[in-house]
Input
Amino acid sequence: MAGAQHKPTSHHIGEITTAATAIFLTLLGTAGSKPLEVGVISKQSHDVDALAWRDDLLVLFEVKSSPLVTYPIRTRLVAPFTEPGDNGPVEMPQHRLIDVDFRLQSLSLYLANRDVDIPLGQPSGAAWPYPELTKYVSTADGFLQYMEAWTEIFLGYRIPKVERRGRDTVLGYLANGWGDEIDSNKTKAGLGRTDDIKKGTYQLLKFGAYYRNGSPKLPIRGVLTANLDPLFMYTEYFEKLIDGRWAPGSKFRPSTADSAYQEILEHDLFYIYDAVLAFNRPVVNDPLLKGCFAFPALEKALLSGKLDDLLDSWF
Output
C-alpha cells in the first residue's frame, strides 16, 4: 500500500456534514408555524454554507458540523494473517497495514464501547449499508443500543481532557479529535475546534456587515450551526460572547443629552450570533428567529404526523 488514509479529507467531511445538517434544518424549519424552505450551497468557496427562506425572511447558515464518533467496520476472519518467517509462516503483528477484499466479507458496524455489532451483510448495491442500518435502528432495542453507545461517548467527551479518569479516558480515544498523535485535532466534533469557533464567528460578523446591513427591505439573519457546541470549552470561548451585540461605526451619533456619549437606535444593533443552533444546546437571540427552529415544535410535528409527507419523500 502506498499509504494509510485514516479519515476522509476535510473537504469530504464538510460536504457530508453540511448535507446531513441541512436535513435536520429542513425538519426544524418545516415544523414551525411559519415554515421555511432550506437549501445547501454546493460551492464550498461561497460565503454561505446553507440558507433558509420565506417571503419575509432570509437566514444564512455557517455550518461547522463534524461527527462525535466514527465507529469501525469489522469482520470475522477464518484464520490469522501470516507472512513468511525464518521457520515458515508467522502471524503478522498488530497495526500492520493489509489489503482485505471486503466485498467478499460479511461486515458489521462495531459499537466498540458496548461490544455490539450491527450486522451489515456483504456489500451489495449503491444503497448499502443504509437499508441494513435503518432496519436495525427501526426497532426499539436497536435504537436504544445505538443511542446508549453514542450517549456514553458524549458524556465522556464533554469532560475536559485533563480531567478524564478511568473509563472516560478510554472513551476519549473513540471520540473524534482526541488530539493525541493517533488522531487529528481537525476531526473534533461540532464546534470543538477553536479554529472553527473563530472562523464561524468571523462569518457571522460578515453576514451582518455585508448582507444584513445592506438589505433594508428583506430581513436577513445569520446562524452558526453545528451538531454540538464546544462542550467543555463553552465557558472559555462562548459564554461571554453568546449574546454580544455590535454595530458599524456609521450607525452611532453624538448623544443629544450628553456630548460625552454616543447613542444608537435599537434596530441598528446586531447580535454577533443571531442564533447558535447547536443541537445539544441551541441559543436563539434575535426575535425574528424565535420559533423558526424550535426542537419542541419539531417533536410535536413528528408525533402528530405533520412531517410524514416530507419524510416519505426522502425515501
Remarks:
- The radius of gyration is 24 Å.
